[in-house]
Amino acid sequence: MATEPETSVAVSELVTEQVNPATVAIDQMNGHEIARVMNDEDAQVALAIKQELSQIGLAIEAIAARMRSGGRLLYLGAGTSGRLGVLDASECPPTFNVPSSLVVGCLAGGDEAIAHASEQVEDSYESGLADCQRLAITAQDSVVALAASGRTPYALAAAAYAREQGALSIGLACNSPSPLAELVEIMIAPVVGPEVITGSTRLKAGTAQKMVLNMLSTGVMVLLGKTYGNLMVDVQATNYKLHQRALKIVQLATGFDPQRSEELLQQADGETKTAIVMGRAQVSAQIAREQLATHNAILRTTLEALNV
After folding, report:
1. Which residues are catalytic?
2. Residue by residue, what is the 3-state secondary structure of the chain?
């Protein structure tokens, strides 16, 4: 059983806890000046992430490989970090038409902590272990432990437990070095520097984590064939906006006009990929579904096999 590691890094020593010299007089600035200085600071986030692209790419490839074998992508974190994991996971079903069990966000303190801050839970290593056990993590899974500080006990527990179970363990923090880095196979650490408001890691650190999570989930889904080019062909058309998006995608992928594309979508029961195969190959919905199933539901592979 994973045991709680010693964390030798003091909070006061963290980069994200240092005073930002650019904002020491922020309380004397007007609204325009505040917006400008925050924008200047945010510009550093993308540059910090650029330094981590090799690690991010490595993580994308490794997660996709595990998913092909039936694994899940699990985000575990506390506070803002955990909420960002929940946010990214919740967007995957409507965007890529995957089950909600495939990409899961787990926040310290549970659903209640989404709307109501529960900072004390992040200090509980035992809570992290309990959530990992509840999720029944296996060697097929990929676990991303999120902690801006890189030292949060809840996230350290997730990383240690994942490694113990043989799962792929990935760390995401905005401080380096960190205790989290010592526990994971792949460490992603965009160091964004001191925050605009000292220690408020919901700002640059939170933005950096969101950007990395965007890359991880999107990159994995692209590798799994959930897009056709950059078209969201697995979109679930569950409301008017998404139906219009699906309609546009069918138009772009088939070259048909809106009326014919709408007819295909209706005949395909709203299934965008099915409608595209029907239109391109001039086949029925049933045959289109069969062809997609034969080729692991990957649209490009299906169309190439049909020579259309």
Report:
1. 91, 122
2. CCCCCCCCCCHHHCHHHCCCHHHCCHHHCCHHHHHHHHHHHHHHHHHHHHCCHHHHHHHHHHHHHHHHCCCCEEEEECHHHHHHHHHHHHHHHHHHCCCCCCEEEEECCCCHHHHCCCHHHHHCHHHHHHHHHHHCCCCCCEEEEECCCCCCHHHHHHHHHHHHHCCEEEEECCCCCCCHHHCCCEEECCCCCCCCCCCCCCCHHHHHHHHHHHHHHHHHHHHCCCCECCECCCCCCCCHHHHHHHHHHHHHHHCCCHHHHHHHHHHCCCCHHHHHHHHHHCCCHHHHHHHHHHCCCCHHHHHHHCCC
